[in-house]
């Protein structure tokens, strides 16, 4: 159901099973992240945010940031919430975090994911290159995209 207000909050270990469920639903032809992968990201101190509606996790995003650059590791929104601005909220939250440390940010996105590509282009990303057969086992290609540092 798509009622209620969407709020963002830090992703918790208790959310990991739901993250994995979302991965399985969204990425069936590729290698969805395991619960262990999410736990490792959280345990390593990477920045992960969840989008919640009516106390249900409907999306998440993750970022690794260092002294010289940042990398968006994932953004995912459950199917019936896509196209409602949740992905934009998640991306803007990640970019605000990146802008605090004033470093460039990079990501990979499937070349056939036109809504995501449009979102990234609208937020200052450029296509930098092509990674052939990046996603496995489907063999789908990915664009590498980057956005220069923005100071706040």
Automatic annotation (TrEMBL):
Record localization: Cytoplasm
GO CC aspect terms: ribosome
Gene3D superfamilies: 3.40.630.30
Membership in a protein family: Belongs to the acetyltransferase family. RimI subfamily.
Main EC class the enzyme belongs to: transferase
Domain annotation N-acetyltransferase: ranges: 6-150
EC numbers on record: 2.3.1.266
GO molecular function (one): protein-N-terminal-alanine acetyltransferase activity
Function: Acetylates the N-terminal alanine of ribosomal protein bS18.
Known catalytic reactions: N-terminal L-alanyl-[ribosomal protein bS18] + acetyl-CoA = N-terminal N(alpha)-acetyl-L-alanyl-[ribosomal protein bS18] + CoA + H(+)
Source organism: Lentzea kristufekii
Broad class of the protein's primary localization: cytoplasm
Keyword Ribosomal protein tagged: yes
Name of the molecule in the record: [Ribosomal protein bS18]-alanine N-acetyltransferase
């Amino acid at each position: 159901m798509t009622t209620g207000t969407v709020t963002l909050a830090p992703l918790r270990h208790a959310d990991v099973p739901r993250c994995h469920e979302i991965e399985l639903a969204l990425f069936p032809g590729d290698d969805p992240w395991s619960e262990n992968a999410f736990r490792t990201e959280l345990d390593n101190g990477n920045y992960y945010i969840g989008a919640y509606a009516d106390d249900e996790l409907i999306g998440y995003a993750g970022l690794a940031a260092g002294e010289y650059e940042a990398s968006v590791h994932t953004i995912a929104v459950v199917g019936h919430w896509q196209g409602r601005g949740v992905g934009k909220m998640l991306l803007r939250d990640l970019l605000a975090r990146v802008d605090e440390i004033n470093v460039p940010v990079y990501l990979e996105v499937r070349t056939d994911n036109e809504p995501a590509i449009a979102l990234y282009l609208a937020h200052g990303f450029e296509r930098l290159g092509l990674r052939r057969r990046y996603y496995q086992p489907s063999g789908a290609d990915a664009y590498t995209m980057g956005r220069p540092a923005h100071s706040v």
